[in-house]
Amino acid sequence: MAYQSKDLSVLAYANGFTLWHYTTADTADAVDTGGYFNAASTMLRVGDIVVANVDTAAAMKAGLFLVSANTGGVVDVNDLTQIGGADTR
Q1: pTM score
Q2: CA angle, 59 as apex, 53 and 60 as ends, to 5°?
């Protein structure tokens, strides 16, 4: 798949920072690929955080992506910082 604008939404905005939510069937590795969010480059700023549900068609994961670069319309996010781990109980 690829970035879908309908799946990106604002959760909160304050002091030039935006907290986003994004959901996708794509894996975290696919979302972390440089340029995945290029179509949203006019909205995403360096330092913004994207709360994400990824790999929703398989073994869904949730986590945080930090927008680490946005230059000339090219957006990069850091690797997913996963929330939660294995459910052992």
Answers
A1: 0.92
A2: 10
In a domain, 23, yes or no: yes
* pLDDT one-digit tens code per residue, 49-58: 999 999 999 9
- In residues, how long is the chain? 89
45 part of a folded domain: yes
Q: Is 21 helix (H, G, I), strand (E, B) or coil?
A: strand
Q: What is the pLDDT of residue 41?
A: 98
The answer to whether residue 67 sits within a structural domain is yes
Q: How many CA within 13 A on the CB side of residue 27?
A: 4
Q: Which residues pair with 74 in a beta bridge?
A: 71
Q: Give φ, ψ of 40 to 5 degrees.
A: -105, 15
Asked if the structure places residue 17 within a domain, the reply is yes
Could you tell me the residue range of the domain that residue 40 belongs to?
5-82
